[in-house]
Amino acid sequence: MIRLFLLALLLLNLQGKEPPSPKDTPFFKAFKALHDYMDKANEVAVGDYEEGERWDYMSIAWDISKYIKGVIPLAQTAIQHMPLIQEFEPKNQAERRFLAHLKQREMLRALDSIGLYQPSANQPKSATLAQAFLDTAYFLYAPLFNAHKLGLDPIAYIKELQHILVAQKQCHPAPFAPNDYCNDNSSCVACAYDIIARAYDEDISKDKFLEQLHTDIKNMADAYGFFQQKIHSRSLWERLTLAHILGDDKDLIDGKQEDVPPSYYVDDDSYKEMLHNYPKRIDPSHLSTLYLARLLFLSYNAPFYTHLQNNPTLILKDHPTMCLSPEYLSVKSQQACQELFQAQTYNAKDIQDQLHLVRLISIDESPCVYLDPKDKLQVFKSDNAICLALQKHLTKDFK
């Protein structure tokens, strides 16, 4: 009887405990602290704003500059609490430097994602911004970090991407004729944006999967804008913080160190000049190349998703790399992928071309296969049916 009573008491206790809300996790709390700090500073900087009034960016820059030293430790704390950051375990000094560079990049990305000057009821709340920030980080880094756990060298991987995508501009194959898109004179960045522009011409109003795809593409494109030097999109918070980190906000005048006026960085040309002066310090680990590879992966099949509704098997057979991103596919399309990969009746060249381009293929952000710089295939342990079928097929091709 006593045992039954204790068991019932235990069950009641377990039922009373709900899983913690994401808002209660250390990252969301730290992100909210960062958001609230910036929000209050923006209120001071903007003042009594009226709809339609033109912002005085020069004045706003001066006011925001007073908060830069305070915002940095708050942003660093938020980034330190990111689950992905905490899971990454550096194996040597080079990987510790890599992680430090990545943390700094994420800190600036956090500032840019929050850096709204005018608080508004229509603006996303801190929890919404925090989740979107994490989602983009997960898409960017999870495949590489998961492969790192299984032995992949992230620095060597990005170095190979740098050679392929930047040095040699080998961003083909593209799904369009070179004369129309991704022409030989374009960079891989231009290629990705050409493809995205075509994808955005499609009607997504009634397709939740396409809506998610376009949201992810937009978030990725915004994140990559930092490296692309799209000046107009960078918030003053990011500009002034980066200038402070680089020491560019100080200048020697007549032997004395003087502050550079914050309004200097409002000017797009001045800010662009600063970026050109510190290329190795802004992107020492070539994270821009990783961003580009992920953007290419995301955009590669973007124009074809609207055609899946009528005959998914036909489209997926020609473009089986779409099956590597099941989150953008309906249940019907996912089933078609399973059948195509089990029967090995898909266009193998589509898979091989993308493997040669981005070198690491993951499904649901879990690594499946990796092609090293010597074109030797490495397979990762997996229980995913499509991955297992892909490994079996590719192992024969790369013997």
How would you describe what is shown here?
With 399 residues, the chain is mainly α. The chain has a domain at 154-227 and 286-398. The protein is built from 18 helices and five strands. The chain has helices at 2-16, 26-46, 57-65, 68-80, 83-87, 93-114, 126-149, 154-167, 188-200, 208-228, 236-246, 268-277, 279-282, 287-299, 312-318, 331-343, 348-358, 385-397; strands at 250-253, 256-259, 360-363, 366-371, 377-379. A three-stranded antiparallel beta sheet has the order 3-4-5, sandwiched between helices. Strands 1-2 form a two-stranded antiparallel sheet. The protein starts with a helix and ends with a helix. The relative contact order is 0.10.
Q: Work out the strand percent.
A: 5-15%
Q: What is the H-and-E element order? A: HHHHHHHHHHHEEHHHHHHEEEH
Instruction: Give the number of DSSP strands.
Output: 5
Largest sheet geometry: 3 strands, antiparallel
Q: What's the total helix number?
A: 18
Q: SS-based structural class?
A: mainly alpha
Rg, rounded, reads: 24 Å
Low-confidence stretches: 3-17, 174-179
**Which shape, going by the Cα principal axes?**
globular
User: What would the average pLDDT be, to the nearest integer?
Assistant: 83
Strand neighbour order, sheet with most strands = 3-4-5
Please give the alpha-carbon distance between the first and last residues. 67 Å
How helical, in percent, are the residues? Answer: 55-70%
